[in-house]
Write a structure and sequence with these properties.
The complex is a heterodimer of chains A (366) and B (402). Chain A has 366 residues and is an alpha/beta fold. Chain A is built from 14 helices and 14 strands. With 402 residues, chain B is mostly helical. Chain B is 68% helix and 5% strand. In chain B, strand 1, helix 3 and strand 2 form a beta-alpha-beta unit. Classes of the chains: A alpha/beta (366), B mainly alpha (402).
Chain lengths: 366, 402
């Protein structure tokens, strides 16, 4: 069933190329809809978000990328008025997120990583309930609900209890729920977390379509590099409560793929710790990652990068089976900027655990 | 502007309450428990505590006749035993058996074969024939205070009845002119008759039903509120309400409404069970009963919101609720009369709103009292409710906007 929907979905929007984002294809204006200044959130002594500032343009898809505990979700919760900033301000559509929170709430929708819906209510009842909190006239609300259910192909199941839905169906419900008030700004917190590839594609395509057709500004947090790369006009990389880089995906990659940086994938038949150490000792090498028993990924800079890496391997007795010169990925960018891999922490989705690393375990984080 | 705000506050509250009730009614098991819980409570408490209607029957009791007689005469003890058997054959209170010694009675009690024993001492006939008082010894099972109290009561009744019969016989023997009734009046000059405020016998159910109704309805608000809200926080659905442009108060108001409705449904079930199954009569106005229940809810809403604001998660909420619920259940005079408790416990009870709710409910349901008779209770409940809400609302607002 899901497969059918997914194919249907993709064929309908085949026009938009899936795997490559066309840089000229933008729907944004130059007007800022979100403006964040020195936004800070502290839980006791623990700084969850450390004085971040950025602007998001109207109609933009803006991604916040980073490991768990970096402060992405907290930033999103502050912007969506669910948490109060400790310091700093932010406006959405010109309204202050603290002083004019009710006005802000009228403009936004939020797709949380937790499913916001009641399992014992039917799909339709859920939407009617949340819709009724927006003071819409009954006929307008009913019409909108029918449209939204049709949009995510759930019309057939509108009278079934949400508890009986598959994860993919539930996530589609979760997304439509946020659209009941036709928000100008949609916040998505890990929208593809725990979804199979098909459902991920569905959600991704749906977000793009929403952005293209309605001009909805979208702020999405994720630790999935693919999502960020395919979806976002601009990406902010967060680490340790700060935004450490902010640009388009292409520009971010350029920062490391300029004439100066070389990314090599090497297969070494007799790979040993000594060989890795020898490579690391080269002046030109920025980082070495061992991918499995034979393969190494080396990020290096300088004109002689190729030669010095190969020399280092040869002199330490390594046998090079094959060698590849790679295009940088967002992952490499992240590694380059933060010095650690995003996956290290992305696999365990327990925020509390994360915070323990920093000495404080604030229980009020959620 | 304010009227508009109030209108949407109420309409959002109703939406939230309606949503909660829909969820409740979809939960089949929950619904069954909603009915079973009060039924169990009524039945257990009503039957465990002795009421005047319950009479003991066929309680196994052993008799040891150690009477050595006076000059070989043992008529007094034989007369005693035959009278005992005679009375018992009418009432069937005891199941009499014979035993040989005190030690046998003790071991039989230890082995749960009998509940108690009667010993006729060796000098019984000697005393009676010499015109002295005859002593009888009752052996009781100290491990079971209720049974031994019942046995003592039953045997004392039997003995005094026997004594009366004997005395009556003796008085009649003094003068042939005395009739049976006159002789009874000489022996037992007073008859005690009990008259209640309302006609009819009072069972323990009459005592507990009003208290349990008050407790269930009020507790469901106090305990249901923190659990319901912390659950929504945990699941994440609370965020869905919080990002909607609604007044934060409508969330708590809606939740409280939903819990109140649930509590009232339970209250009605308890009332129906009490009337239908346990023969409880409502002497006062039913409207006043429901008015009281609502007022009880009002006095507990504030406390519920305070707990909600303090509880971080569902587990904490549950634990807090248990901690508060048990003292309230036992100290508020719901299950035992307050007068049974020592003075310091009674003083603590004075600080619990449930005490006043249960008292007022009992006065209305059992005694048929009107508003004037319970005005003190009403005032205290209103004051408690207002004070708690005044504390609760700022706390709740702070919790919602961390």
């Amino acid at each position: 069933m899901l497969k059918h929907i997914a194919t249907n979905y993709i064929s309908t929007y085949a026009g938009a190329k899936l795997e490559q984002k066309n840089e000229t294809e933008t729907y944004q204006s130059n007007e800022s809809i979100i403006s964040v200044k020195n936004l800070t959130k502290m839980f006791g002594d623990f700084v969850a978000v450390d004085s971040i500032s950025f602007d998001v343009k109207k109609g933009e898809i803006f991604g916040l990328l980073g490991p768990n505990g970096a402060g992405k979700s907290t930033t999103l919760r502050m912007l969506s008025t669910l948490a109060r900033p400790t310091k700093g301000t932010a406006t959405i559509g010109g309204f202050d997120i603290v002083k004019e929170d009710t006005e802000v709430r009228k403009l936004i929708g939020i797709v949380s990583e937790k499913m916001i819906m009641y399992n014992r209510l039917t799909a339709r009842e859920n939407l009617v309930f949340f819709g009724s909190l927006f003071n819409l006239p009954k006929d307008v609300l009913n019409k909108r609900i029918d449209e939204l259910l049709e949009l995510v192909q759930l019309t057939k199941w509108k009278n079934a209890q949400v508890g009986t839905f598959s994860t993919g169906m539930r996530q589609r419900m979760n997304v439509v729920r946020a659209l009941l008030n036709m928000p100008q700004v949609l916040f998505l917190d890990e929208p593809t977390l725990g979804l199979d590839p098909q459902s991920s594609v569905e959600i991704r395509e749906f977000i793009k379509k929403l952005n293209r057709e309605n001009g909805t500004t979208i702020i999405v947090t994720t630790h999935m590099m693919v999502d960020a790369d395919l979806l976002c006009d601009r990406i902010g990389i967060m680490d340790h409560a700060k935004i450490v880089a902010l640009d388009t995906s292409t520009n971010l990659k350029k920062t490391i793929s300029g004439a100066d940086t070389t990314i090599l994938k090497l297969e070494i038949g007799n790979l040993s710790p000594q060989i890795i150490e020898a490579i690391q000792d080269c002046n030109c090498v920025d980082s070495v990652t061992q991918e499995n028993t034979l393969h190494l990924k080396v990020i290096s800079h300088g004109q002689e990068a190729f030669d010095s890496v190969i020399d280092a391997i040869r002199t330490s007795g390594g046998k090079i089976n094959s060698m590849e010169n790679l295009q940088p990925t967002l992952e490499d960018v992240f590694l380059h900027i933060t010095g650690h891999q995003v996956r290290d922490s992305a696999d365990q989705k327990i925020p509390m655990e994360q915070h323990k690393h920093y000495g404080a375990a604030p229980s009020r984080i959620r | 502007m304010i009227a508009m705000g109030a209108k949407s506050l109420l309409s959002h509250s109703f939406r939230i309450a309606w949503k909660d009730l829909t969820e409740l009614f979809r939960n089949r098991l929950g619904l069954v428990l909603l009915i079973l819980m009060p039924l169990f409570m009524m039945a257990m408490i009503g039957f465990i505590y002795p009421s005047s209607n319950t009479t003991i029957s066929n309680m196994p009791v052993a008799v040891v006749n150690q009477d050595s007689g006076f000059n070989g005469l043992t008529q007094p003890s034989q007369f005693f035993i035959s009278t005992l058997q005679g009375i018992n054959s009418q009432t069937h209170m005891l199941k009499l058996s014979n035993a040989t010694s005190l030690d046998q009675i003790k071991s039989d009690i230890q082995n749960s074969k009998i509940d108690g024993g009667i010993i006729i001492p060796s000098n019984f006939s000697t005393c009676i024939i010499n015109g002295e008082q005859g002593t009888l010894i009752i052996v009781t099972d100290q491990s079971n205070p209720t049974v031994s109290a019942e046995l003592e009561g039953a045997l004392s009744g039997v003995f005094s009845e026997m004594g009366t019969a004997l005395a009556q016989h003796n008085v009649q023997g003094l003068s042939a002119a005395v009739t049976a009734n006159e002789s009874l009046a000489v022996v037992q000059p007073y008859i005690v008759k009990t008259e209640g405020v309302v006609p009819g016998n009072q069972s323990y159910f009459n005592f507990i039903a009003p208290g349990i109704m008050a407790m269930t309805v009020m507790m469901s608000v106090m305990t249901g509120l923190p659990v319901a809200i912390s659950q929504e926080k945990e699941v994440g659905t609370m965020d869905g309400m919080m990002v909607a442009p609604i007044n934060r108060l409508s969330i708590i108001l809606g939740k409280a409404l939903g819990q109140t409705a649930r509590g009232l449904i339970q209250g009605v079930i308890i009332m129906a069970l009490a009337i239908g199954l346990f023969g409880v009569a409502v002497h006062g106005s039913i409207l006043l009963v429901f008015g009281l229940l609502l007022l009880g809810v009002f006095s507990f809403v504030g406390l519920g919101i305070v707990l909600t604001s303090l509880a971080k998660d569902q587990e904490t909420a549950q634990m807090m609720m248990m901690t508060l619920m048990f003292p309230m259940m036992f100290l508020s005079g719901v299950m035992f009369p307050l007068q049974q408790m020592p003075w310091y416990m009674q003083d603590i009870a004075k600080f619990l709103p449930l005490t006043y709710a249960a008292d007022a409910m009992r006065k209305v349901m059992v005694l048929g009292a009107g508003v004037p008779a319970i005005s003190n209770d009403l005032i205290i409940m209103i004051v408690f409710g207002v004070v708690m809400i005044a504390i609760a609302v700022p706390l709740f607002r702070r919790m919602m906007t961390r």
